[in-house]
Design goal:
Elements lengths: L13 H8 L13 E4 L9 E6 L5 H11 L4 E6 L2 H14 L5 E4 L9 H5 L11 H5 L2 H7 E2 L2 E2 L5 E10 H7 L7 H13 L5 E2 L8 H12 L7 H6 L10 H13 L12 H9 L5 E5 L2 H8 L5 E4 L12 E5 L2 E4 L6 H11 L2 H11 L2 E2 L13 H8 L3 E2 L9 H15 L5 H12 L4
Parallel strand pairs: 2-3, 2-4, 8-9, 11-14
Antiparallel strand pairs: 1-3, 4-12, 5-6, 7-9, 7-10, 7-11, 7-13
Helix pairs in contact: 2-15, 9-11, 12-13, 17-18
Length: 432
């Protein structure tokens, strides 16, 4: 997920969105793992829709609501983790085997994004849909390719430290509010036999989340225009505060912030650790809360900004449009696919999705209910103390992929943070 160079968004453009969303809030859950389900066999008739999603745990409720609102319609769907999905979707589109509707990330940062899939003509132009004109400018930028809208973006997500309230209370420790407190918290938690944060970087997309949470404050706190300067060639990853963010990530690891063997821990397994109190929390997106509640229905979970300096007033949190849905340009059921997209973007559909996924709606009339654990994220969004997910401002998907694989190599001592940042610069400078 990224922005194209010509569509780089000034981070301050989140302000109009915040104004539109002030009365709205969040709830819980996105997901991973692999799952398949179907409401009917086959496809191609006007009553059966095929769909592929990474939103396991939340898409199911949306599908049920859509089917209830459209008697006789059945949705055949599959869900899978982001890594698996991104590896498959372009191949399916190229071979004509892709579903009618599919998950599409905003911008241009991975193989399943708006720019990457729209450029070769794989996605249907949705510009004439009523909701497309209502998207705030900050979302239009990453939902469009060459001025046409291809992605139905329904939610805003954030990244931070999510704590298991019961486990934290039992530990006798308090959630840290400064960088110095964070390192002490990690050492104390490890000493009690319950690591501070679960980290499941066997799934390589997870490697970026701690780094993004740190970089929001370390890189963008002093310079909100960093990405504009990066695009203009006025700075680089390797020659900037990204080196500090990388160093802090490694310092957290050395301080015992994570459980043993993060590289051998999957995203799914990390959820279990945090949900059951084997760790005190996890650094993840807000979607994780409903997943944790699925594993621990009586649990309470609270998200805060991850401390990156000793000045809490300067903390920023990553927050940006999450994955949306696009329509296959060669869909067997285009009419039904557009009907589904319209439902997702309707107040009723968006409310179901946002409350299940724990995201802020992109349109102001969805009436999403708040999850109490997301109060701080909501406050940061409303106070314009957020920055977009970093990869949404990069010119091609290879930059992010280089970072993800590089971070795994750093954790396995096969590479260094400096080498990863230099490799990211190499890929960034190649442009689109």
């Amino acid at each position: 997920m990224i922005f194209t160079p010509g569509a780089i968004m000034n981070i301050r453009r989140l302000t109009p969105l915040v104004a539109a969303l002030t009365a709205v809030t969040l709830a819980a859950a996105c997901s991973s793992g692999t799952n398949a389900n179907s409401g009917a066999d086959g496809g191609g008739d006007n009553k059966t829709l095929t769909l592929a999603s990474v939103d396991q745990g939340s898409i199911e409720d949306v599908i049920k609501a859509f089917e209830a609102a459209n008697p006789g319609v059945k949705v055949t769907f599959t869900t899978s983790g982001a890594d698996q999905y991104q590896a498959q979707i372009r191949t399916q589109l190229a071979s004509g085997t892709a579903p009618d509707v599919m998950t599409v990330w905003p911008g241009n940062g991975n193989p399943g994004t708006t720019y990457v899939l729209a450029k070769p003509g794989y996605l249907l132009d949705l510009s004439d849909q009523p909701w497309a004109a209502k998207l705030p400018d900050s979302f239009k930028t990453v939902a469009q390719y060459e001025g046409k809208t291809y992605n139905a973006l329904f939610g805003l997500n954030g990244i931070g430290a999510v704590y298991n309230d019961e486990a934290l209370q039992k530990s006798g420790l308090k959630a840290p509010t400064t960088w110095t407190e964070l390192l002490a918290f990690c050492r104390d938690a490890a000493g009690k036999g319950t690591p501070a944060y679960a980290l499941g970087i066997q799934d390589n997309w997870v490697t970026q989340l701690v780094l993004y949470a740190l970089a929001a404050t370390v890189v963008f706190g002093p310079d909100r225009d960093f990405n504009t300067k990066l695009a203009a060639g006025q700075t680089t990853f390797a020659g900037s505060s990204w080196t500090q963010a990388m160093a802090k990530y490694q310092e957290m690891s050395k301080a015992g912030c994570f459980q043993k063997n993060p590289l051998g821990t999957s995203y799914e397994a990390s959820q279990t650790l945090a949900a059951t109190g084997k760790t005190l929390g996890i650094v993840q997106g807000n979607w994780i809360i409903s997943l944790l509640k699925q594993k621990n229905p009586s649990g309470k979970f609270t998200m805060t900004a991850l401390p990156a300096t000793d000045d809490p007033a300067a903390f920023l949190m990553p927050a940006a449009a999450g994955a949306g849905y696009g329509v296959n340009a060669k869909a067997k059921n285009k009419e039904l696919a557009i009907k589904f997209i319209s439902y997702v973007m309707s107040p009723a559909g968006m409310k179901v999705f946002n409350e299940k996924q724990g995201s802020l709606p992109t349109l102001p009339d969805a009436g999403t209910t708040v999850d109490p654990g997301l109060k701080e994220l909501t406050t940061f969004v409303q106070g314009n103390r957020t920055v977009p997910f970093m990869d949404q401002l990069w010119p091609n998907a290879k930059v992010q992929q280089t970072m993800l694989s590089g971070l795994q190599e750093v954790f396995s001592n096969q590479s260094t943070a400096d080498a990863v940042l230099k490799d990211m610069d190499t890929e960034y400078q190649k442009g689109e």
